[in-house]
Amino acid sequence: MKKFIFVLGVFLLVFGISCATEEMVGCILMPISGVLYFFGTTSKEFFAVFTMALGKYFIMAGGFILATALIFLIPTKRKEISDDVKNFKWKKFGIWKKRRTLFQIFILSLITFHICLVHFGHLNIPSMCPRSSTDLATVGTFGLSAVYWGTMYLLVFIWGRFICSWFCVYSFVQEQSNNLLRSFNKKVKTTVKHNKIIYVVTSIFWGSVIYNFLVFYMNNDTVYFQITNGYKVADLWVFLGGMATMLPLTMFLSHYFGNRFFCKYVCPVGGLISIYSRVGLLKIKIDYDKCKQCKLCSRDCQMGVSINKLIEKKSPAILDGNCIACGDCIDRCKFSALSFGINFPDVTGTIKRMAERIKGHKKEELGGVQ
User: What are 282's strand-pairing partners?
Assistant: First the structure.
């Protein structure tokens, strides 16, 4: 009961802060937007009520409940808490994780620089978040965000789901949340259960975007394009506050739902990309002369990809839609059996296998006729 009260307090506190920083209407609500589009609204409009005015009440309620829980919880959990603090040790990063983290910080710096320029009146470039592009698409409007994300979706044919682990802002938040939890020796799930959920979410989301766009086009017989079309970027304090808010909230959710829960189960962008990312050229290739089949690569995969099963099937590379090309498995391999490389789709082999299946079906039919 005490733990439940503690969790409730943390949730209300973080929820209140997310309202105050407008993170409640951020890209994390994209899965819900897919349903709201069918009703002619967006998450930005529907959740507009969750503002600073309402958020302060959640903050006060959460703070009071959390303080009450700690008064009763700390005396009984003092040794456990003390041990967690003493045992805190930041896990060592592998070479690819170091590179990825630095690149993620670079991307965050570019976004912050963009927001600063807009905030101080030196630039008027709209937001390029994915939700901005889809919100506008439902009313036949396109701008810079549509150009940017259209380009990113095409680049998947070259670098697969590279965008999910290296470019995505929330990727950095999820990874650091996982790093903090592991530093406190808290177990975080990496396996994927019921991963078909993401395809249901993806189908609803993109189906609603296409449906609303077609309805708009049939009623208006036109679309609107201007490079400056889009949402205005958030205020600087809102962006920084939102990032600070998302870290504890993501730690909370990761503890209960597993590492990269958003990517695995509800992200409609990642869900779409996963369908065709396997044909991307950039892949993590497998050197069977070095591989000892120790399965360490599978145990540490952020997305829960069963790399050992691909190895058993003698796959030339990690050909799985859930692979985000993060490079963690390369760092984990003690025998240097995994490395980034170019893998051309086996089009000829696929055609041959299809032809063989067709011939087999024809023989069965002929045999049935005789």
Answer: 342
- Cα separation, 316 vs 13, whole angstroms: 48
Helix and strand element counts for the chain (H, E): 17, 4
User: Directed axis angle between helix 197-220 and helix 130-137, to 10°?
Assistant: 40
Nearest C-alpha neighbor of 256 from the set 185, 187, 183? 187
pLDDT tens digits, residue range 38-84?
888 887 787 777 777 777 788 888 888 878 777 766 555 556 656 66
Local structure of 97: helix, strand or coil: helix
For tokens 């990032």, what's the residue? 243
Domain ranges within the chain, ordered by starting residue? 2-274, 282-344
For 27-61, letters b (16+ CB in 10 Å) and e give bbbbbbbbebbeeebbbbebbeebeeeebeebbeb
Query: Domain 282-344 carries which CATH code?
Result: 3.30.70.20
Length of the chain in residues, anyone? 370
Q: Structure pTM?
A: 0.81
